[in-house]
Design goal:
The chain contains 9 helices and 6 strands, in the order βαβαβαβαβααβααα. By secondary structure, it is of the alpha/beta class. It has one domain: Rossmann fold (3-Layer(aba) Sandwich), CATH 3.40.50.720. The protein has a 6-stranded parallel β-sheet with strand order 3-2-1-4-5-6, sandwiched between helices. β4, α4 and β5 form a beta-alpha-beta unit. α3 packs parallel to α4 and α4 runs parallel beside α6. The mean pLDDT is 97. Bound molecules: nicotinamide-adenine-dinucleotide. The site of nicotinamide-adenine-dinucleotide has 31 residues, from α1 and α7.
Length: 249
Amino acid sequence: MPSLAGKTATVTGGASGIGLATARRLAADGANIAIWDINAAAAQTAADELTQAGHQAIASKVDVSSRADVDAAMAQLHDAFGPVSILVNNAGITLFRGFMDMDEDAWDQVMRINLKSMLVCTQAVIPDMLAAGWGRVINVSSSSAQTGSAGMAAYAASKGGVIGFTKAMAQEFADKGITVNNVPPGFVDTPMLRGSPIGSKVDAIAAASPMKRSGQPEDMAAAIAFLASEEAGYITGHTLSVNGGRYSN
Ligand SMILES: NC(=O)c1ccc[n+]([C@@H]2O[C@H](COP(=O)([O-])OP(=O)(O)OC[C@H]3O[C@@H](n4cnc5c(N)ncnc54)[C@H](O)[C@@H]3O)[C@@H](O)[C@H]2O)c1
């Protein structure tokens, strides 16, 4: 039997890149999938792909920082699948901007989507996990919070917040059967990376990296699937770096 049979997983930002690979992987592992993404059309395409492959999947248009959107998506999820047992807090945006050019609106937007989303989405799923005495929350942070990165102060701060959030939540829910971990990607070849100011240099940077390649979304999905599994039940508060040796912690 697939390892996640009978479980339901929500993947935020599941319409693209790391989230899409994660949705595919968790579906292959047997979970029902709810894709929450602000890009409604891409989310539906992803859910249709999974359904046509024989999996159970639904899509909801969700801004992960909006409690109203998340509440509506939870109602849709409950109708389709019942309680949720796995949350992958993956949706995020990047911002490359020199610090002295940073305005408060841009700062707030990054914090809202990358960090406030942790509050809103995780609060929505915790009641189901408490009722079941079992849950997995996996937060996608960033290697930029581990290494620092010039021109990414807001982004690195938001992702550092995700790591701190993970550790605090892990301790708060450790005796409730709920694990909370984070996975910081490092240089993963996705539309976000290709659309960034270093997008045209991805292949050259990858060639100069320890493994001589960029990360693939499936590399991230494999780590997330492990943390979602039964076997990872004694791991919580952990930062599982997936970066091809670009940074060791
Ligand atoms: N690609 C990398 O190298 C890398 C490195 C470090 C961290 N990350 C993180 O990994 C995560 C996934 O990134 P990716 O590279 O797959 O990017 P991506 O742009 O390919 O996918 C991000 C998805 O999130 C969705 N999204 C954006 N804002 C949203 C919102 N407010 N509500 C709901 N959905 C929203 C987008 O529509 C998109 O489908 C992000 O949190 C990102 O910060 C990526």
